[in-house]
Amino acid sequence: MPSCPQSTEKKPFERLPKTVVPHVYHLCLKPDLEKFTFDGTVKIDVTVAEPTHQILLNAFDLKISSASFSRNGTETKAKEWNINKDTEVATVVFPNQLEIGNGELSFVFTGNLNDKLHGFYRSQYKTPSGEVRYAATTQFESSHARQAFP
């Protein structure tokens, strides 16, 4: 019986480093059901476990417009950030080393309400009178939350 060749190329699974550990997410998402987009802010209570200049987070298909780290009333704005589409990881780089201790990461970002039934997406329904309406829905199982917030 002939066998079909199978691709052995798989994206290797890698956990994020434990340099910065998240504890609590304070998340606000504002969907626009006419443009099928959303605006978001998130403040993440974190512990910096090792001194670092950069933080890695899961993120995919988002546009981050600002990123900062705060501790004891002092805010440090990130000097750059990017999201790698292949690994679905955001890298946020700070101008100074973040020292060990507790702090708060803050992000402002936007995204699209896709129609792919995962992440933060739009679903369509009809009213009893036949009017088409939309709702913003989530499917975060496995790794799809990264499509809604970093």
TrEMBL record:
Q: Name one Pfam family in it.
A: Peptidase_M1_N
Query: One GO CC term of this entry?
Result: extracellular space
- Which SUPFAM superfamilies does the protein's record reference? Leukotriene A4 hydrolase N-terminal domain
Positions of the Aminopeptidase N-like N-terminal domain: 21-150
Q: Which GO terms describe its biological process?
A: peptide catabolic process; proteolysis
GO molecular function annotation: metalloaminopeptidase activity; peptide binding; zinc ion binding
What keyword terms does UniProt attach to this protein? Aminopeptidase, Hydrolase, Protease
Q: What is this protein called?
A: Puromycin-sensitive aminopeptidase-like protein
Per the UniProt entry, what species is this protein from, by scientific name? Answer: Leptotrombidium deliense
Q: What is the lineage of its organism?
A: Eukaryota, Metazoa, Ecdysozoa, Arthropoda, Chelicerata
